[in-house]
Amino acid sequence: MGFLQPLAFIALPLIALPILIHLVNQHRHRTIPWAAMMFLMSAKRMSKGMARLRHLLILLMRMLAVAALIFAVSRPLSGGWLGSIGMSNPDATLILLDRSASMEVQDLQTGQSKRSASLQKLTQLLEQGDYGTHLVLIDSASGQLQEVDSPKALLGLPTTRSSATSADIPGMLESALAYLKANKSGRVDVWICSDLRENDWAVESGRWQAIREELSQLEGVHHFLLAYGDVPSSNLSVRVENVQWWEHGNDAELVLDVVVRSKGSSETTRQGFPIEFEVNNVRSVVEVELDRQGASLQGHRIPIDTKLRSGWGSVELPGDANSLDNRFFFVFAEPTVRRAVVVSDDKKNGEAFLRALTIPIDPRLQHRVDVISTDRIAEGASLLRLTEQWESTGLLIWQAALPRGAVADQIAQFVDTGRVVMFFPPVTGEGSQNAEERLFASHWGDWQTPGYSRQRSAISRQQEDSGISSENLRTDRRQPTTATHSFGVSWWRGDTDLLAHVESGAALPLNELRTYRYRSFESPGTPLARFDDNAPLLTRVATERGAVYFCSTLPTAQFSALEREGVIFYVMLQRALDQGSQALAVVSQRDAGPDVLTDRNQWELVAPADNSPLLSQRGLHGGVYQDGAYLTAVNRSQIEDSATAVPVETVDALFDGMSYRRIDVDVGDTSALASELWRIFLFAMIVALLVEAVLSLPSKRGSVTPLTQKPV
User: Fold this and answer.
1) Same domain, 406 and 386
2) 544, 608: one domain
3) Using one digit for the tens of pLDDT, what is the confidence trace for 96-110?
4) What is the Cα–Cα distance from 78 to 676, expressed in whole angstroms?
5) Per the domain annotation, does 464 fall within a domain?
6) Are 95 and 136 in contact (CB under 8 A)?
7) Would residue 461 count as lying in a domain?
8) 3-state SS string for 548-613
9) Segment holding 10, helix H or strand E
10) Considering the entire predicted model, what is its pTM?
11) CB pairs under 8 A, 24+ apart, for 450-459?
12) Residue 44 and residue 6 share a domain
């Protein structure tokens, strides 16, 4: 049980007031014995036991009445979890609101979503009590801190409405932690409203340990998780992938893949399930067979006018538990020429890159590849002058010593426009001689061979045991070895990026790749593949836009089997080219987020026309936006359709060492988080007074009240 006015318990000593009055009344007059009354006093002693019991009950009822009045004034709340709120009001209350697309699952009877229900429950609770001098909202869509005037204001804020984004719970807690440190708040209540999706909580993230350590050091901070972990009984979501515009003679068509996923206890197989397509305001309906996993339309064709060289469309499902994942927007345009530039210091390697990039995955696509020798690039030379179509180039392959000066600046600008650069090691030159050649905080080291690697490990152990410096061992480290063995790949990321599994789910054959030489490098990036000696094969360096990759070996037979085996090398380069070309296309598919539309200033909403978001909320909702000839479709991320709930035990473990309570709520539960019990205590006070009044009445047989003689 919790109390909204715990200071009322200061009056608890008043419970002893009836006892005090009784004692004072007992000693108010001095009793003088009187012989004439001796007979009456003897008669009274015969009923003394029952009278004393009645007097004790009267005294007890008076004490209970006072206690009930004090408890009523303290405004008690029901709910055992509220006991952790404590005996004092908070100085501040922080609300971390999950606005992700999955929070829009609704109860079909009440029409409330998880997000709106959590807001209403929390608003009602905060209005009943004291939320402190500061009420701060941190919403998952914008990630910004916003001070709110009152709990009621939460219901009308644009930053508490639905969005198509995903949540970052660790990031929200980091923002809350920064606020607590900056404001040095005393007692703080932190409320987290979430549906426990695994992508939102990122329980495997390394950030949780630091968050837990810092929050556990703050005194007076109490965490409450309003958890909506229930799964909808039946919900379908739709996505569109691989949208392509093709022209055949005098006809044109769109080719796309449609995937319908099912969540919850899905219904049985349904024939004739309708899917509505809309292309530039022209609608059509296709009926499919729906099974327990959902439905799929691969290579669905939609005829369009040949004059329609670009445009937008959407795919929509009938209404169900979550209306936010029932529609998916897409954009299309005629394919452009995909261009790549290869800078190489070795002719054979340059030809290997040329062969892998020239042949497109789809024969209807056109590829153009320029190969430039490093001899043509002098210090300060511009790649723009050496490449005819530099502005339309999507991929740059740099297989040479890392550039400096104007060329390095031009490559950095190339990445800032969203395009892709892949660095491969130079054939010649020692890393120690080029230590100053750094780009994207990365630097090439020395060439490694299997024998060299084993020798280096032995030298490292010798160095640790004997304390010999690395300079003294440099001559030994460079002794030639015979490459009788090769390096294998022990690990790679198959879920995303350049080495992800193919559409069928099969993994790329990296476990069969043999590497005879690789070049070590220092980089702050994230490895995507590692050799069996734990050295990185492929690394991605984090950038705000675009992508930067470092591959530590070369494709020719002297270095690896990349070109000979072909599949890995071809797929890796083609994916990089596709990724870089998307940044130059006049259409794009983007995941909803606060910065998704910051690359241009004149984006205008094209669809949906009936529900235009505020300017500050653009990019957080699904729709189609246009800026001149450019079109972009904004949708929820793919993980929002497939993520499952994190077990509550796992979530509870994240808050070990902190004051924490979890409140499990179902979306259809309309009851308040807490109800006041003061009426019960007032009723108890009235009952106690009535019982006291009845006990105070004279008995039916009459009673003799002893007389006392006033003092003379």
Assistant:
1) yes
2) no
3) 999 999 999 988 788
4) 6
5) no
6) yes
7) no
8) EEEECCCCCCCCECHHHHCHHHHHHHHHHHHHHHHCCCCEEEEECCCCCCCCCCCCEEEECCCCCC
9) none
10) 0.70
11) 450/481, 450/483, 450/484, 450/485, 450/486, 450/487, 450/516, 451/481, 451/482, 451/483, 451/484, 451/485, 452/477, 452/481, 453/487, 453/533, 453/535, 455/479, 455/481
12) yes
Which CATH number is 250's domain given? 2.60.40
Structural domain harbouring 51: 2-77+678-696
Question: Half-sphere exposure (CA, 13 Å, Cβ side) for 518?
Answer: 27
Helix residue spans in 193-345 (DSSP H)? 198-201, 207-216
User: For residues 274 and 272, what is the distance between their CA atoms, to the nearest angstrom?
Assistant: 6
Structure tokens that stand for 450 in this block: 């299997």
CA angle 599, 605, 609 (to 5 degrees): 165
Q: Residue holding tokens 């430039």?
A: 372
368-425: pLDDT as tens digits: 999 988 877 764 456 666 676 788 899 999 999 998 888 888 899 999 988 999 999 9
Give strand pairing partners of 238.
260
Q: Are 665 and 228 in contact (CB under 8 A)?
A: yes
Q: Is the pLDDT of residue 275 over 80?
A: yes
| CA pair distance 530, 537, nearest whole angstrom | 5
Q: Tell whether 465 is covered by a domain.
A: no
How many Cα atoms sit within 13 Å of 561 on the Cβ side? 14
Q: Print burial letters for 445-458: b (CB count within 10 Å at least 16), e (below 16).
A: bbbbbbebbeebee
Name the 3-class secondary structure at 394. Answer: strand
pLDDT digits 0-9 by tens, 110-159: 888 999 999 998 998 888 777 888 999 999 999 899 999 999 999 999 99
Give bridge partners of residue 541 from the DSSP assignment: 548
**DSSP string over 27-51:** TSS-----GGGHHHHHHHHTTHHHH
Q: Are 366 and 284 part of one and the same domain?
A: no
256 contacts 243 by C-beta, under 8 angstroms = yes
Whether 467 is covered by a domain: the verdict is no
- Three-state secondary structure call for residue 468: coil
Type of residue numbered 220:
G
Which tokens is 124 given? Answer: 């009602």
User: Residue 456: enclosing H or E segment and its boundaries?
Assistant: helix 450-466
| DSSP H/E element including 638 | none
Distance, in Å, from the CA atom of 369 to the CA atom of 342, rounded to the nearest integer, reads 7
- Residues 507, 512, 515, 520, Cα dihedral to 10°: 40
Helix (H, G, I), strand (E, B) or coil at 231: coil
